[in-house]
Each structure stands twice: as C-alpha cells, then as structure tokens.
Amino acid sequence: MVRSGSIIIIKRPLCYGTVLFLCGIVVCLSVPAAARICMGLFIAGCQGYLLASWKTKRQSAYRLAAVLGMLGFLLGMTRMLYAQQQSLAVQNMLQEQEVLSGQEQQTVIQGKITKKERKNNQTRLYLNHVFLRIGENTYKTNPVLVQFKEEPSFQSCRIGTTIVLEGNIRQLNHASNDGNYDEYQYYHSQNIDYHFIAEKICGVSGRENIVKENLFLLKEKLKEDYIKYLSERNAGILGTMLLGDKELLERDVTTTFQQAGASHILVISGMHISCIGLFLYEMLRKRGSFLLAGLIAVGTLFLYVEMTGVGTSALRAWIMFALLMAAKILGRSYDSRTALVIALLLLLWDNPWLIGYAGLQFSVAAILGVVLVAECIEAVLPAGGSRKNIQKYWQKVRKSFAISMAVQLMTFPLVAYYYYEIPIYAVLLNLLIIPLLSVVLINGIAATVLMGVGIWIAKPAIVLLEGLLNVIYIGVRWSSQLPGAMKIVGQWSVQKIAAYYLLFACFCLIIKRSKSFGKDEHITTDIHPCIRKWAGVLTGIVLLLVFLHPARSSLFLAMLDVGQGDGIYLRLGKDTTLFVDGGSTDVSKVGQYRILPFLKSNGITKIDYWFVSHYDEDHVNGLLEILETEYPIKNIILPGKQPEVKNYQSICALAERRSIPIHYMKAGDCIRSGEDTISCLLPDGGYQAEDENGKSMILFYQTKYISGIFTGDAGEAEEKWLLEKLRLQKVDFLKVGHHGSKYSSSENFLKTLSPELALISCGENNRYGHPHQETINRLKEASAEIYDTMKGGQISLEEEKGRITVQSFR
Known about the structure:
By secondary structure, the chain is of the alpha/beta class. It has 5 domains: 4-96; 107-208, CATH 2.40.50; 216-311 and 421-487, no CATH class; 495-547; 555-798 and 802-806, Metallo-beta-lactamase, Chain A (4-Layer Sandwich), CATH 3.60.15.10. It is 52% helix and 17% strand. It is built from 25 helices and 23 strands. It has an 8-stranded mixed beta sheet with strand order 14-13-12-11-10-9-22-23. The protein has a 7-stranded mixed beta sheet with strand order 15-16-17-18-19-20-21. The chain has a 5-stranded mixed β-barrel with strand order 1-2-4-6-5. A hairpin with a 4-residue loop joins strand 17 (698-702) and strand 18 (707-710). The two termini are 55 Å apart. The model is unreliable at 1-5 and 516-527 (pLDDT under 50).
C-alpha cells in the first residue's frame, strides 16, 4: 500500500515541482551564495534518492516527480538569480551616477506606457521597456512608475505609446520604524526599483493600444457615474469592489473593514472573478455551446481584469477561471490545486519578486484554506440533527462556516505579520455577509450598465444597490465596534509563522488520518470522531494560548523616527508602558502611520502613562490623532495648565471624551514600577521659563540597568537651573534637547551628566539645521556615542539578561 504522505508526489507531480520551484526562489532570497550550492546539492541528492529507492508499481510517477522537483528547484533559483542581477545592476548604476545620493540630477527616460491610473487627482504612468539616459550614458532598467509635477495633457499619455520624459529620479523610501510602511519593499515586489518625477514631456511616438486606452476611459466614466448617482461612502465601496480603484474610498471606511476582518470584500479576488465569470458563463451556456460560452466568458473577464488594473490576485483568479473553462470545454475534471500551481508558476516566472507581495500571499493562503483545510474543519463540526430538512439546512451552514473558518485560520499568520492585530469576530461576520456579496456584485454590474442608459431606468437597481451596500457596511461597522473586536498580537516572526503552519498541518493530518484509519482499518465509528474533535479542541486551545498572546519584548526604550519631532516609547518595570510626546512638523499623520504601527507591531496593547513635555505641534499632533482612535491610553501626564493654548484644549477635550484621566506633573513627582522609576525635574514652581520651550517637562528615568534624562525642548537656561538646584549625577543616556539645537546641551550640562549615549530626534533636511554642528562637537567632547533618527531611523535600547544593546533601525 502506498504511503499517504506520498500521494501528492504520485497524483500531482506538478504541485511537487512547484513547491520546489518556490523553494528555489526562497533559497536565493534568504541563503548566502556559498550555502546555495550546498542546498542545491542536497535537493539534488533527495531527488536522486527518490529516483533510485521507490520500487513500486508507480515507479514512473515517482520518476516524473523527481525530474519535475529537480527542474523546479533549478528554475526557481535561476529565475530569481536573474531578477536579482537585473535589480542590482540598476541600483549600482544609479548609485554610480549619484542619482540616489540626495543630489537631484536631470535625467531623460524613455518607455512604453503599459498602464495608467488616477491617484490623489494625479495621473500616474507605468512604463515598460525603459531606457534611462544620464549625461552621455544610456541604461536599460526595470519597469518604472512615473509621476508628474504638473498634470499632463490627455493626448500625450495614451496607453501603448512610447513616451520620452525629462525629470528626476526619486528613490523609494525604506521603513524607518518597526511596523511602518516600507515603500521600497512594496514596489520592489512589483519589480519597480525607483520612481521618476517628470517635469517635461519631450516626445510621444508609436500607436496607442485602443483596447487598453478605452478600458481606462470606461473606468473613469464609471467612477464619475458612481460619484453622481451613489452616496459618497457607497461610491467608494463599489468603486473598490468592481473597479479595483481606491481613489474614492474614504480612509475610515478602509479602517472599519480592516478591523472587522472584511478587507477581502474591497479587493478584486477569486470570489469576485468566479462569481462574475460563472454567472456570465451560465447565462451564455443556456443560449449556446460550451465552447462559445467559455471563450466569451474568459475573454470578457480578461478585459475586466485589464480594466481594473491587472492586480495580482485578480490575474491569479482569471488564470484559474480560464483553466476551469478549459476543463468544461474539453470535458475533463477540474483540479483546483493544479490550477493554483499553474497560476503561481506563470505569475512567479514573470516576476519572482511577487513571492514577497502580501496580496499574492493572502490570495494563495485563502485558496489553500478552501481547498485543503475546509474539509478538515467540517469533519470536526457536529453532523446535525436527525430530521432531513434540518440536517440539509445545517449541512449548508456547516460547510459555509468551515470554509470561512479555514480561510481565517490560513490567513491568520499573514494578518498578524502585516497588520499586527487580528479581528476576533471575522468568521461569524463573513458567514453573514459572504452570501450577500454575489448579490451585490451582480446587482452592482446591472446598476452600472443601466447608469449608462439613463437614470430613469437605473433608479430601481441603484436603490437596491444602496440598500445592500448599507447593510454590508452597517454589519461590518457593528462587528468592528463590538468589545474586544481586535486583538493586538504584534508582528509575528517568520519562525513563529512556520511553527503555526506546522502545527496546523499536524492538525489537518490527524483529521485526515483519523478518517481514513476508521475507514480502512474498520475502527468502530465511536472512536475516530472523538479523535477528530479532541484534535480540533486541543489545537484550538494551543492556538489561543500560544499564538494569540504577544511575546514579551526585550525592548525597553525606543526613540522613533517621526521626522522633525519627538516620539519615545519606554517600559517601566515588567509591564508598565510609557510614551513621551508624539508629534512631527514634516511627517503627515505621524500618529496614524508611524506611532500606532510601531506600538501594535511590538505587541504593546496599551500605554499606561502618556507624557507631554510641552504643547508645540511637533510634540503633540501624533497624540491627538491616537486619541481619535480607540487605542487604550490609561493616563495622560501634562506639564501644567495652559487654557489659552489650542493643543492643550484639544488634549483635554479628547481625553474627556474617552474618559482618560489627566494628571499634572511637577518637580518631585514620580511614578514607580517595581525598582524602576521615572521622576519629574521640571516644571518647578520656583522657576519661570522665558518661552514655551522652557516650559518643557524634564524627566529622569532610572531602572536597575540604566538611567537617563529626557529634556523635551528645554534650553541652556533650564539646564543651568537644574545644575544649580539639583545634584545631577552621571547618566547612561541623554535625550538631547530641542532636536540637537545649539541652544541646548550646554558644555557644563554635558560635563556633569557625562552620558555614554546621546539620542537625537530630528528630521532629514530639516529647515532648522538640526542637529547643529556645535552641539555635535560638544557631545563628542563629552565622549558621548551619538545616535540620531535622521540617519539611522528608530533607535532601540534592549535589555537581555542585564546586558544593554543599542541599535539603529537602518
């Protein structure tokens, strides 16, 4: 009898080869060059063993699997190596020409327009077959995204034409804090190495692609119709669902869907493609042959995918749908697993960097959940009652619940890795709204078509569509507002994700083995259901206890890169969390895009005490954003009452709305947690500050292993007062005052404190010239090791078994 573990090799050798193709790509990405040879030899040895050792009736099947496995691994490595060499050549060329060194250099670029889109009321072009001319040298590069300083004329940017542009190259930004958006990582997964900021169109040649251009115009026309006939919120939701365009979607709507675990509704995925495609196919099939219906359905869907921007998930779904239609036309059975691996092979061969693209990872995980895991979940669930009508209804609910649960469990690690928190009620919500989705899609298409005919005939469909979209949004919002709707779990490590999937695979294997064992070995039916149920219960308990609980971080201090501003996280004792300031003058929405992602990615579920040194914009606007959210803040600590200051009024109003206590700290006050303390040195009733910066709260931080001072924006006068009134002693670190201004960190102050570490928070190319060279010189004279967020990004201090380590993010 053939071992069950070898079924995939016998029945689906292409799946086996694809797995090793993926392994080849991953090895190239993560393993040093010398180790790749060893890995290659190891894989080759395994395939050789497979060829030589299997002596069964299916020997030819094993040989085919071994050949495909070897070929897949080698092709994966070869394709990834070639892509790496292309990208590296582009980066080296740009660095040699000093384009990416911060010095803007005029360049000319030529490429064929393959796609265009509207974003933030601006036209953006995607160019392929790109040639870059810098001075007398011309280089061939990967595809590029073009943005314009001034909106170009419509006639000059038609899809399919070759365009010549003059402008500047802009490098892609890397993340500078834990959990922050990495622009470089995202566009690199799309095989784009840089952006081009066009200042002038030098020429346009070639013939336009009439089909693609008209599809783009149709998309823009449909967006105008949605704006005209639907409410603002529903226009954004429908535009995202049907057109794949998020330009109309409000930010708070996106957040609501994400928090409820329903983001997949706003992405054109396999669910959308299969729903639309099968509906079209069945309509045509009643009036024609399999061949004609299949070809028209596949062709129409391809045009639809093209109109929506050829997203990776949509293209994957179209390939699988095309294979489904081919199976129907040829009278063959359709195997979704084989279809998935064919789609993966085609996508990754075209662009192997897609292996790091979140959209593809979510798409594949969801499909695997439906195909492989749903039946295991269903086997654990009770069979239902004895009455036929109840049992029939229960079987449908049971299957839907199993599919929803399987998709959530398979995508759960990805949600934790990319979003740092998971929606608790997502399974139940999807059970309710997924049945509505097909109705919404079909009704949305009907309403869209009728809008082009006239509002008088489209009105009934629009009213129904508005009602359905409102029902979905109300359900999603209600789910997101339930107590405990989101659980912050922190960003999972790759090792933790691997452990989760390994445990989950064991669970599925136990379920499948118990079914076959009971069937093949004649085990009585009262034993193997218990095995399945207990396996499910125990696995669920392990998942809840181990994986949902954020791991305790060794991080106890982090100065975030917030641009020109301040934002510092602290831990006091074992679990008391603090944050000092939180604002910026040159980073938009710093609380939403930098501070909150940092907190969530590190599994920090609440801030016990949020300190505000003073009320300048670059110290509080991020806090104000976070107070608008539901992120837990237990207490706010302020330096004093200033009712005439707008930011003070805003903090008090938002804190009152959320019932957060406000405390005012003065010299001598302290907060203690175990042996650790944070105490206030200023403000003091006996000191009158000359300006707002002088009113800054100055804090002294003391733990078992380290001590330091946070000076806010205090200047030399405040430092002098502290030296005169207090017995300041040596500290391990100093948060350098006022972002490194020359009017702070005086010589006497530094000499007294003698800090080993000097931490400076300032923005790149800021207009104040921070940190000033005079300050840097004084810090060097004090023998301080200098770290600044401008160059290194987030500065982290970690403690492991009494040993303190300091590291910059980049």
